[in-house]
UniProtKB/TrEMBL annotation:
Protein name: Acireductone dioxygenase
Record has Iron as a keyword: yes
InterPro entries linked: ARD (IPR004313), ARD_euk (IPR027496), RmlC-like_jellyroll (IPR014710), RmlC_Cupin_sf (IPR011051)
Protein role: Catalyzes 2 different reactions between oxygen and the acireductone 1,2-dihydroxy-3-keto-5-methylthiopentene (DHK-MTPene) depending upon the metal bound in the active site. Fe-containing acireductone dioxygenase (Fe-ARD) produces formate and 2-keto-4-methylthiobutyrate (KMTB), the alpha-ketoacid precursor of methionine in the methionine recycle pathway. Ni-containing acireductone dioxygenase (Ni-ARD) produces methylthiopropionate, carbon monoxide and formate, and does not lie on the methionine recycle pathway.
Reactions listed under catalytic activity: 1,2-dihydroxy-5-(methylsulfanyl)pent-1-en-3-one + O2 = 3-(methylsulfanyl)propanoate + CO + formate + 2 H(+); 1,2-dihydroxy-5-(methylsulfanyl)pent-1-en-3-one + O2 = 4-methylsulfanyl-2-oxobutanoate + formate + 2 H(+)
Keywords: Amino-acid biosynthesis, Cytoplasm, Dioxygenase, Iron, Metal-binding, Methionine biosynthesis, Nickel, Nucleus, Oxidoreductase
Chief place where the protein resides: membrane
A Pfam family annotated for this UniProt entry: ARD
EC number(s) reported in the record: 1.13.11.54, 1.13.11.53
Record's keyword annotation contains Oxidoreductase: yes
Family: Belongs to the acireductone dioxygenase (ARD) family.
Length: 187
């Protein structure tokens, strides 16, 4: 099954719920690509020997990797960690995540500052561009195993919103402006 993404509703209910609007409207991978979000579907059962994953890592320079098992039984201060992950922020570098088991949501802002929910399931690999506002949460299954990839040593520094004057955010907005050939307002 392909990656699922949709515009979120405005509900303040539990962040782990899908937050589908009514009517439900799925977005395309092409729509995500216009925002700079990249996607591959891989075989999570073969990640240690997957030549396609190896090719992606080589082509994009992802030379560092670690694993994160995110669930109450394996992470101390689990609820606090989820709260931190769900705070809207940017990074100076790409965020690369490969779902090996379980499931969860990456939320990203579109060019109109609306939340898009991306449902990560086993085999989904996504790359969020540097400077895009985003956040993360598990879904109601309360478990996800992610491979985290980096160029060089890992940097996890989040810059919480607002960050409109951050050079990486400005560069991201500029890339969208160039892509669409129109001015995009910073929100």
């Amino acid at each position: 099954m392909a990656l699922e993404a949709w515009l979120m509703d405005d509900s303040n209910e539990d962040q782990r719920l899908p937050h589908h609007p009514n009517p439900k409207e799925l977005l395309t991978i092409d729509y995500l690509a216009e925002l700079g979000v990249l996607y591959w579907k891989l075989n999570p059962d073969n990640y240690e020997h997957d030549s396609e994953l190896g090719k992606i890592r080589d082509e994009r320079g992802y030379d560092y990797m670690d694993m994160l098992d995110l669930c109450p039984e394996k992470v101390s201060n689990y609820e606090e960690k989820l709260k931190n992950f769900f705070t809207e922020h940017i990074h100076k570098d790409e965020e690369i995540r490969y779902c090996l088991a379980g499931s969860g949501y990456f939320d990203v802002r579109d060019k109109d500052d609306r939340w898009i929910r991306i449902w990560m399931k086993p085999g989904d690999l996504i790359v969020l561009p540097a400077g895009i506002y985003h956040r993360f949460t598990v879904d109601t299954g309360n478990y996800i195993k992610l491979m985290r990839l980096f160029v060089g040593e890992p940097v996890w520094t989040p810059y919480n919103r607002p960050q409109e004057e951050h050079p990486v955010r400005k560069e991201y907005i500029k890339s969208l402006t160039h892509k669409f050939g129109e001015s995009i307002q910073a929100h």
